[in-house]
Amino acid sequence: MSAPAAKAPFLPWNRPSIGKEEEAAVLGVLRSGWLTAGPNAAAFEQAVRDALGQQDAFAVSSCTAALHLALLAAGLRPDDEVITPSFTFCAAPNAILRSGGVPVFAEIDPATLNLDPQAAAEAITARTRAIVVMHYGGQPCDLAAFRRLADDHGLLLIEDAAHALHAWRDGQRAGSVGDLAVFSFYANKVITTGEGGMLVGRADLVQRARLLGRHGIDSSVWQRHGTRSTADYEVTVPGLKYTMPDITAAIGLKQWEKLPDFTAARTAIAAAYDKALAGLPGLTLPTVLDGVEHGRFLYPVLIDPVPGRDRDRVATTLREAGIGTSVHFQPVHRLATYRHTPHHLPITEHTAARQLSLPCYPAMTAHDVQRVIDALHALWS
Ligand SMILES: Cc1ncc(COP(=O)(O)O)c(C=O)c1O
Question: What is the pTM of this model?
């Protein structure tokens, strides 16, 4: 009698790729005697700043921290409005509210699922102070159009580039165009430090953010550890504590070196999905615009509901087949904190009800990719 076929292990929606290099780097920091923000954080900041051609960079504890600091540095006055998509993660709208501002949700472009510059323009009022764009799934939004819009109206442009550390549009790199831009190194992101983030941008704004992210103290503990007396510090604003420890930054530096290879792996998986899933009725695959080098953080599909098959049923059936998926995103204006905000966002609502993110990450094998493809074909047969 033959043994029953072994069940394939669960394929999660995402899994980080951490190697011996990261392990060795962490051990090095642990043995160095310096655990908190120090030389590794400074080196990570310099690497990202130089790659983006931005004036300054501040490594922080999360992208949410970077967003909070960006909006505090923007110096919002009570009831200042900040235009942002609702089709995003709650981090930016929450940070806008926590910084004293009012999020104003504008509609997305139905092809790229990025904030629509025309819709953003129509949302501008006398109280608007900033626009927070988000590069959905790794495809940069219309950077040139948003830069123009911000300049024409004297607004700050902040890029939420949590999905787009390695993405370009018309030769401009995501994160290099805004007055400020933020990145995430959360466990599921294109590179990860477990938790972590980076704020980059104009020197005056990043310097203010750095001050606010270090208790309002005008020097780092690393600087004070050297020749300066530790008692020699001043608190000039009531700041918070958002710095990135060197343990984290050491992982980040190793992941940063791997970013081009990670993106190539994600791109190959996306190409395999594009080829194998094209033509399934009612399944819309991601649109990539000409002139875009996509970061491929997400592979988001849209599923038109038909009797017996809608987005949630597909997710459940894939889970039963041992395949994880995710949803990006529940529209923020539908979440309890935001339900009272005025909105008319039919494209966002129609998109969000049909969106599903397939697994797309460097740790996947060719066999994993084929499993996802076969499971989807089975669902459509
Ligand atoms: C678009 C976007 N912005 C911000 C964040 C927050 O990132 P973090 O978890 O590093 O704070 C996320 C997290 O998933 C995100 O998707």
Answer: 0.96
